Amino acid sequence: MTNLNEMGQKAQKAEFQLSQLGTLDKNAALRKMADDLEKNAATILNANEKDLKAAQESDMSKAMQDRLLLDADRIKGMADGLRSIADQEDPIGKVDRGWTTEDNLDIIQQRVPLGVIGIIFEARPNVTVDAAGLCFKSGNAAFLRGGKEAINSNIALSDTLRASLKESGLDENAVQLLHDTSHETAQSMMELSDYLDVLIPRGSGKFIKMVVNKAKVPIIETGAGNCHIYVDESADQDKALKIIINAKVQRPSVCNAAEKVLVNENIAEEFLPKLAEELKKNKVEIRGDEKTKSILPDVIPATEEDWYTEYNDYIIGIKVVTGLDEAIEHINKYNTKHSESIITENYASARKFQKQIDAAVVYVNASTRFTDGGKFGFGAEIGISTQKLHARGPMGAHELTTTKYLVNGSGQIRE
Amino acid sequence: MTNLNEMGQKAQKAEFQLSQLGTLDKNAALRKMADDLEKNAATILNANEKDLKAAQESDMSKAMQDRLLLDADRIKGMADGLRSIADQEDPIGKVDRGWTTEDNLDIIQQRVPLGVIGIIFEARPNVTVDAAGLCFKSGNAAFLRGGKEAINSNIALSDTLRASLKESGLDENAVQLLHDTSHETAQSMMELSDYLDVLIPRGSGKFIKMVVNKAKVPIIETGAGNCHIYVDESADQDKALKIIINAKVQRPSVCNAAEKVLVNENIAEEFLPKLAEELKKNKVEIRGDEKTKSILPDVIPATEEDWYTEYNDYIIGIKVVTGLDEAIEHINKYNTKHSESIITENYASARKFQKQIDAAVVYVNASTRFTDGGKFGFGAEIGISTQKLHARGPMGAHELTTTKYLVNGSGQIRE
């Protein structure tokens, strides 16, 4: 079995060096990693072919095979991702706040790296590069464990990044990949609290839940999104239609896609037929509550379970509500605290919705699809946190940091 | 068995009301709670007497009995604690940052409550009041579980606070105490992730480790402090003596007391005899490395285990180091990432120590005893976090909050 403690020690050693590195040196190393990925494309594609062949032999679904696939374009995409991380602001060294205490001590709260970040993910090899890049920029060592389906690709990618680090004169152990993809080793990694400061699982909701249940290391939970759009009585209905269709069908498989629409009863008879027509054009199946069904007789009745479900598919749940209060109550009960939107032209409704909805991101008159590190301007993201501890919403390099208090005195002792 | 899910639902309901409450209303309720504690002193002391009697019968140590004891002064202390929490700034509603995205969306990142906070603690009844007060001020429902040794005191205290909330026209379930102190129920509470947003254990290091290992709810780890003071070659030795004695003996049982002193070899022969004399006056036992023993022949030899140990007692470990680099390496290896201090008059040494030491608080020329919510100016604290996730160092009301992104648009959809 892989010696995880040894990997952990190497990671901590590399992390110490990395935590002291200046921004220009980090950015130069990231740009070299990007170049080296492109130079090494043949080797990487060769390794990826082995994974694809094994995937075909094991009858992996086409969708999964597509996630696994690398080609020249996708390698360029990963390299450009690293370059855009290099272009981002360095979060390390930033001062959150500072003050002088009554004892005349000067306190500064400064951003420092988290330390060693474990990332445990399923079959997408691009996570190896994205995660390594974001961790590196924020001064953290990356301790990676990808799915066995992508192991050859992941080894080729991490070997390329490690060689690149070495050629930059840096400790290659700033990026380490577990080559052993057994479940036993994954379980041991989830318990490696002496070395890992945080563990971020990336993958399906089921996978993330499994990691959350088994881990002893502090976790940041990402991903689940049962997102709602509430159409207020005062909504601009054209805006509402465009936003709902965008949030549902622009990319239905992702966590910030809308899964439910709540409609104010005073506009339901006017609005729902228009919405049904647009959804039909886009091949979206509707599951409605009783009131919706009384207006749209063809819809499938929604069950209690539907209100909890993240479909990630061309399906949407619709409920007619008596007003804003019922909408807020319904959303706070059934949502996954990811992204929620109100469509309204009324100031008081907008304010109340934003104050009372408990979610990472609460929109007025915009599509939930904007909950994304890129769209927020973070350049890249390591995931979207749906927990409240440490980070909430899209997580960029800033969210991979913690703080340290620097306290400067002149001989103070406590009375 | 207590129905924890029902308590969880009540907590969430109370939390919703509390999250929407204005600062003046919260402060008025806190001041009323303080007054009601003092008014209800007889009932509280009566309940405490039952706990003390049981403690005497079970041969509890005198130190533990002292922690359990309440008297008029201590009740006034708890009440004044609530009043000082009322005087503090309200963290809710503060904006951390805001910007306009390339899609012309306005994003505001605003402070909101964490939600329902579980506190699991040992025998100190004052935690019931401190924790309830800090959670309340930061808009969080408190879900408390204290040790069985203090159950009568805790019930009297929480009943007083709950009655006070009710009289203020608020939901009394903003503060709930588990009356059932069985281990089974405690275990179920640690797994109550549907209702608890975070769990903070308070107590001995052993107790905290146990909770960290068993919990499924996100944890904030507090408390362990193996704190070091490094005396640099350029130190003002009088300052160094005063700071070391203060950090060691002003209150040896607490986590921010100094446990180890590292001394630069170039000043060891001059400094160590002076330090030994001061420590002897204060009845502190010295455990030294070989070089220390060569200068102070009477000291007990330190073992490898000593370097890891938090004594919380009149014992100190002393090691002579070749210089700053060895001091930093030693501290980063053995410390618990709590509080570390360098005594120096040299700018470069001070800067390097603060940049390279990995700890919540890194001091120059001050006692480690200042790592404390009160001394930091937070008014009160719920504990001192020694983990890196979410909060690091003293945790006041601000650290019991998370953020929500408010995104305002005008019909934006994602291309």
From TrEMBL, chains A, B:
The keyword Ligase does not apply. InterPro entries: Ald_DH/histidinol_DH, Ald_DH_C, Ald_DH_N, Aldehyde_DH_dom, G-glutamylP_reductase_CS, Glu-5-SA_DH, GPR_dom. It is found in: Cytoplasm. Its main location: cytoplasm. One of its GO terms (cellular component) is cytoplasm. GO terms for molecular function: glutamate-5-semialdehyde dehydrogenase activity; NADP binding. This is Gamma-glutamyl phosphate reductase. The gene is proA.
